[in-house]
Amino acid sequence: MTLLPPPWLVDPLPWHAAASPLEIPRAPIDPETESALHLGRYVPVFGWGATEDEARRVIALVARAYSTEADPGAMGILSAMLLHPTLGTRPVTWLADAIRAGTAPTAWGKVALAAAGLLGAGDSVRAEFGEPLLDCPALRADALRTVAVGGAEQYTFPEAFARLCAAEKEFAGTRGAESFTALRAWFELVLARRWAALETLREIRVESLPAADAWLVSAGLFLVGDDGAKGRMTEYASLALEGLSPVAPRVVPILARELAELVSHSWARRWDHLRCAAAKDHAAAAVRAWLSAALYEPHDEGTDHDTLGPEMTKAAKEARALVGGFLLDWFVPDREARSRVDRWAGDVLRVYHRLHGASMLGGVLDEVIG
To answer: Which of 173, 167, 160, 273 is CA-nearest to residue 221?
Structure first.
């Protein structure tokens, strides 16, 4: 099943005049290979068009990243092959068009999305790569996970949360609705520090979720100290990875090491998260008190001419008194706590995308490579 050859496969080819562009870089990656990737002398994912050979090449690319000969930095370098500096998203858009036209199977789209997660692409690259596949009905739920579950790199968590809320409404009444409720609640609890979301996470039937989504819910419950959450994280990670070991032998030890790092210093992470939540509550109380005093209480503004400190109105003084001095004193020491929690959340989401990619690829492996 193929479309006509893509329009960019004409002379000159877009691989930056490379006589033999990289298709599957050798392992370990040498300086020559790394230079070719930086210069765009490679064929990106589905760069030869929406073909079965290309789907198999993408699987081979993932296998090379997780092979026993690969160096530790291979995944970060190979993720450059998702997009191309000349073509951008045209290859994956061509694939999406082929899937919608029925001339390419949905499994090829899952292979592409899985590669974005397994190769450890950053938030912006992964979102750009997955965006064209949002228009494929059979891939929309997985593409939304690829595009919307992120935000750690440039602190775009609010935008990701908004997309998840929209997805939850879009899938209401379908089998996928609970997954997006779980993802939205995880963002609320971990990143927005809204404790009401904890009850939502606890009420979700985790066993009915895909393995990667269930793992993310367990990670959120681990952060707040739920008994057994660490064991469930290991269990669901194993479920997500079980179909990928034949082609990626190092995927289990690599993910095991990353999981061990996530669950270390659990009490310190829990304390940081509690301080962030408390600081947010006190900030809300301070703002409400300041506005109340400023709007409804008569006050005279005055300046102490003996000092050059900030001018303090009566409203600000009353607000500080009402919240016990937390107007400024509470927040400054907690900047590092917020940063640590957000970094932990970013690491969790990177592992989540690898697990989600492993689950997708494991599910279509037999169909693609036979």
So the answer is: 273
Distance CA 107, CA 362 (A): 11
Angle between helices 196-203 and 211-223 (to 10 degrees): 140
* pLDDT digits 0-9 by tens, 321-360: 655 544 444 454 577 888 888 899 999 999 999 999 999 9
Answer for the pair 65, 17: CB distance below 8 angstroms, yes or no.
no
Last residue of a domain, one of 148, 173, 193: 148
How many domains is the chain built from? 2
CB atoms within 10 A of CB 336: 11
Per the structure block, which two tokens stand in for 92? 């994956």
Domain that holds residue 274: 268-343
DSSP H helix total and E strand total for the chain: 17, 0
Q: Is residue 104 part of a domain?
A: yes
CA 245, CA 253: separation in Å to the nearest integer?
Answer: 10
CA distance 356 to 362: 10
Residue that terminates a domain, selected from 98, 114, 148: 148
Q: Is residue 370's pLDDT more than 50?
A: yes
The rounded distance, in Å, linking the Cα atoms of 185 and 194 is 9
pLDDT of 19 reads 63
**What pTM was estimated for this model as a whole?**
0.84
**21-24, Cβ contacts within 8 angstroms, sequence gap of 24 or more:** 22/81, 23/57, 24/57, 24/60, 24/61, 24/64
The answer to whether residue 184 is domain-embedded is no
Residue 341 CA to residue 271 CA, distance in Å, equals 10
